Amino acid sequence: MNEKKFRQELVNTLTGENAHLSLESALKNLKPNSRNVQPSTGLHSVWEQLEHIRICQEDIVQYILDPNWKSPEWPEGYWSKKNDKVSDKEWDNSILKFKEDIQKLVNIVKDESIDLTSIIPHTKKHTYLREILIVIDHNSYHTAQIIITRKLIGDWK
Question: What CA–CA distance (Å, rounded) separates 86 from 47?
Answer without folding.
Answer: 8
